[in-house]
Amino acid sequence: MDENWRGNLPQIAARKTGKSRYSFVPLFMNELNIQNLRVEIADREIVRGLSLTVPCGEVHAIMGPNGSGKSTLAKVLAGHPDYHVTGGAVTMDGENVLELEPDERARHGLFLAFQYPSEVPGVTIANFLRAAVQARMPEGEELEATDYYAKLYEKMELLGMDRSFTSRSVNEGFSGGEKKRTEILQLAMLEPKYAVLDETDSGLDIDALKTVAHGVNSLRGPNLGILLITHYQRLLNYIVPDHVHVMVAGRIVRSGRKELALELEERGYDWTREEAGEMAVR
Amino acid sequence: MKPAILDQLMTEAQAILSGPSRRSDFPKWFRDQQHGAWSKFQTMPMPNRKDQPWRFSNVDLLDLSQFKLGAPITDNDRIEILERSRALEQVAGRLVFADDQLLQRDVLSEDLQRKGVVFQPLERAMVEHTDLFRKYFMSEPATLGSAKFAALHHSWVSSGTFVFVPRGVEIEFPIEIFHWLSGENSAVFPHLLLVADELAKVTVIEHFRSQDRQLPGFACGVNDLISGPGAKITYVCAQNWGENVIALQINSTKADHDAAAKSLNLHLGGKYSRFESLSRLIGEGARSDLLAVSVSDGNQEFDARTLQDHVSPHTASDLLYKNALKGRSRNTFGGLIRVEPHAHFTDAYQKVRNLLLDDDAEANSMPGLEILADNVKCSHGATSGQIDADEMFYLRSRGITPAIAQQLIVKGFLNEVIERLEQPAIADYLRGLIDEKFSRAK
Ligand SMILES: Nc1ncnc2c1ncn2[C@@H]1O[C@H](COP(=O)(O)OP(=O)(O)OP(=O)(O)O)[C@@H](O)[C@H]1O
Ligand SMILES: [Mg+2]
After folding, report:
1. What is the pLDDT of residues B362-421, one digit of tens each?
2. Spatial CA neighbour of A165 closest among A152, A176, A151
3. Contact by Cβ (8 Å): A46, A69
4. Chain A CB within 8 Å of residue B420 CB
5. pTM score of the predicted model
6. Among A56, A272, B214, B248, which lies 20 to 30 A Cα-Cα from B158?
7. What CATH number was assigned to the domain covering residues A29-281?
């Protein structure tokens, strides 16, 4: 792979218009596209033919019962080596994601906020993020320390984080809420094109939830597509999604507008299961 | 040009197995000691893998026949070595040796001299501080396997450092000593004799380096570190010998009542590098911290043997060794906590962690306890593991390449030990050496 590929531009093709003038149109849509994805772990199929499209600039929420495969989907997108993709395709702005290494996917603009972020003993947040930002720079170019810290402190302020966090080891001894905030801090620093947020709201108290939602909302815009995994419709009051999808047993069984989340809150998942069952029979 | 016959004579005279040293400017009593040590060296058997202190060690690497004393350092080498002999920004004093020849001595500040601090080459100390020298120089027998090499050291030692810090004097910045290997097949016998009198405080850092990282060489060092009542000594070894160096280091620490002794040994270089660390807690309330960090790769072999010897009651020792192993490298640890019959109310800990970064790397740890007193708190444990796959994935998911991720994780793993020094400037310097080792490996 070309390590230096990091453009925000969609791939383009020239099309002849009229006389001898050319205009450029995207050959691929700017979107994260998942087609009929199948994933196994330990010989068990967890994701079972899932299709989903997140256009850049939109926020899509996924809700679904425990064990339905939401985190598996998130980790497969990020390239976790334990999961085995047995079928389907994933593209990001037309580029085949599945053939990229996890770190390449990230450098090409994919980000995952983990449901259970790992602890990295002895590595400070400052050094960790610095390495991540440095990894996105062209070979031979050194990150300017003062610029880096200015940006880091700005983002920390946005997320209501104390500066002393920068010298603590990544996630070591962090409270659940602190871990989630740190994930969003990384999102803010790394400026991906597509971000998957896996239950970033769980474990947050109401004030932290508002702060984190504010942080995410401030990043929202035409250059970022977000896939939001959550159990609680409450989060969606703060980060209002463009679309809501219901995932059951490894598939998207229903999609709708944000009102779907309210309906789920009221009725639970059983009715979607039944409909999914009907779908399978048909 | 020298006549060839003279050259040959010199070479013969200088092979270390032809010993002992014939330096005539040492006092007679010391030359007598050297002859005695030489006889001892000759009569003692070479180490054998079947001896417990050499278990798992690759003793075949200890063929010393090719090693000799280095030729006089040329002016060009001298300039180069001195230019490269910089590590810490602020030091209280500095000595630079290359092939055991003293190249430079930065004198102590007038203030420290006035307070009676002594920082001088060993041969001067023999004359000017004979009593202290005779009392402490190699006063502790090498009991962890290398008695034969301690004898070799004694019979060949030609230079080294004597540091004496008088009662109540605290030296703010570290004293820095460089030992360079310069010529091909050179042998050096570095020595540090450090005596901190009552309530004194001092930090000494030794840098072991090769001018040419490819040249074979041999280093056989001995340190005597004495922490008087209530004194605080910190000793740091930054071992970064070239790739084809065989190195043995025999350290003994003595902590008197309420004294603290802290040592950190960083091992990065050498083909075979062994260090023996004897820490004796001889006075009530004494405390000793034994820290070590290593990163090995290729076919490197590191070998550490320790004894935490609690002689008096209410003493504490805490050993923390962390090793990261790459390639086909090997690391051996053999350590014993011994609590002697009267040493009640002792706290003694020993923890060894090995991080195996490649399938072919091998770590062998042999922790041990021998408790002959009551009311003792002891724990020991050695574990080996690999980088946690989820942790690695987490770093990669942020765009960090596997090589950099590994380096970050290893440095994080080792950092716990380095932080225990509580000396930020030295800690930064040591982390820099580790980074350098990683970038060399590319
Ligand atoms: N490494 C693994 N080994 C074995 N089974 C696994 C592994 N990872 C996930 N699974 C299984 O896959 C299924 C889906 O798990 P996943 O974590 O993706 O669910 P989820 O939808 O995120 O659930 P939750 O809402 O509780 O977070 C579960 O049955 C889980 O036990
Ligand atoms: Mg989950």
Report:
1. 999 999 999 999 899 999 999 999 999 999 999 999 999 999 999 999 999 999 999 999
2. A152
3. yes
4. no
5. 0.89
6. B214
7. 3.40.50.300
